[in-house]
Design a protein that fits this description.
One of its GO terms (biological process) is response to amino acid. One of its GO terms (cellular component) is cytosol. InterPro entries: AsnC-type_HTH_dom, Dimeric_a/b-barrel, Tscrpt_reg_AsnC-like, Tscrpt_reg_AsnC/Lrp_C, WH-like_DNA-bd_sf, WH_DNA-bd_sf. The structure is a single chain. The chain is α+β, with helices and mostly antiparallel strands and 159 residues long. It has two domains: 6-55, Arc Repressor Mutant, subunit A (Orthogonal Bundle); 60-141, Alpha-Beta Plaits (2-Layer Sandwich), CATH 3.30.70.920. Helix content is 38%, strand content 19%. α2 packs across α3. It is elongated and about 55 Å long.
């Protein structure tokens, strides 16, 4: 990948704040011509630095009052069991993220549900049906103090 410069990093930061910011405003903020700004923006997309755009919803306002962090430990690590595990997790809209981790658990999931009954149903009908699962440990979020997907691009690039 071609190296990103300070203007690219600033463009990335601005787009993380407002992905719908008009090119004219971006160019103004970056002290660039509109054409140059548009080319940089397209280059970030072509390089795969920008993977897409989305609206960020308030989970509580759409009925997801429960946020759970779920640690899953597996006894089976065969290729078939892993493929089936991944297929089920990928197809579950309740699972916001899933990470294969180091430590005691094999996987860490972030799961949303309407309420505790809904979460309990999800555990019984989805998580307990995953192949090779020996342990499911849930931690429920009592209060969310910070949630972001914004990356500190300038910091990470050392700019």
């Amino acid at each position: 990948m071609s190296a990103l410069d300070k203007k690219d990093a600033k463009l990335a930061a601005l787009l993380q704040i407002d992905g719908r910011m008009p090119n004219a405003r971006l160019a103004e903020q970056l002290h660039l011509s509109e054409a140059t700004c548009w080319r940089r923006h397209k280059r970030l997309e072509e390089l795969g630095v920008i993977e897409g755009y989305q609206a960020i919803f308030n989970r509580r306002k759409v009925g997801a009052s429960v946020l759970a962090f779920v640690q899953i430990t597996c006894t089976q690590h065969s290729e078939a069991a892993t493929a089936e595990f991944e297929r089920i997790i990928q197809s579950s809209s309740r699972v916001l993220s899933c990470h294969n981790t180091t430590g005691e658990a094999d996987f860490l999931l972030q799961v949303v549900a309407k309420d505790l009954d809904d979460y309990s149903h999800f555990v019984e009908t989805v998580l307990r049906q995953l192949p090779g699962v020996s342990s499911i440990r849930s931690n429920l979020s009592l209060r969310e103090m910070k949630a972001t997907s914004h990356l500190p691009v300038e910091e990470l690039l050392g700019l």
